[in-house]
Structure formats: structure tokens, C-alpha cells
Design goal:
Blueprint (H helix, E strand, L loop, with lengths): L2 E2 L5 H6 L4 E7 L4 H16 L4 E7 L4 H6 L7 E6 L2 E7 L4 H12 L1
Parallel strand pairs: 1-3, 2-3
Antiparallel strand pairs: 2-4, 4-5
Length: about 110
């Protein structure tokens, strides 16, 4: 199950994580987000314990979106050691996201 990132837990769970972090910025009204959502959930299960995978609802937590310059959704960012290291904008195939995540995990 993907983590629901909030303004209260984002620093602790994402920025300070010792694992690679994948964050899906989404909204309930966004059609392409509904295509990406199940992929993110699948990956959260597959990579449990190896990476932190979660979601940010841009309507609820706009400050997190603003911090990373998210202007279009879905946007998926990848973080390592608290730093933004990769980004994917729009609905992309699962294989693309898995490849990016695995490359960062080394």
C-alpha cells in the first residue's frame, strides 16, 4: 500500500528516508492520475521494504507540490538522500517507472 504523504509526515518519511523515495503527485479529478494510481499501488507492494512509495494529493497538500515545482499532474518524482534526482510527468507505463526506480536503487 502506498504511503499517503502529508505536510506533517513528508519530511520524516520522504526527505529523511535512507531508501529511494517515489512520490506520485495526483488529484481525484485527474483522468491520467487514475491510470497511474494502480501502477503506484502495485509498485508499493512490489518494492515494500526496498523503497518508499507514496502519493501526495495536490488539492490537500499544495505546499509539497509547490516545493517541487509540480505544475502538471500526474507528476512522479524520485528522491535519494533527500534530494530530487529524477522526475516523470504524465501517464507513463509501469516499466518506465520501475526502470527509473531500480536504476536509483543500484
Amino acid at each position: 500500500m502506498a504511503v499517503e504523504f502529508t505536510e506533517e509526515n513528508f519530511d520524516e518519511l520522504a526527505v529523511k528516508s535512507d531508501k529511494v523515495v517515489m512520490v506520485d503527485f495526483w488529484a481525484a479529478w485527474c483522468g491520467p492520475c487514475k491510470m497511474v494510481g494502480p501502477i503506484v499501488e502495485d509498485m508499493a507492494t512490489e518494492f515494500e521494504g526496498k523503497a518508499v512509495i507514496g502519493k501526495v494529493d495536490v488539492d490537500k497538500y499544495g505546499s509539497i507540490s509547490a516545493k517541487f515545482g509540480v505544475r502538471n499532474i500526474p507528476t512522479i518524482i524520485f528522491m535519494k538522500n533527500g534530494e530530487l534526482v529524477d522526475k516523470s510527468v504524465g501517464a507513463v507505463p509501469k516499466a518506465t517507472l520501475v526502470a527509473k526506480l531500480e536504476a536509483l536503487m543500484g
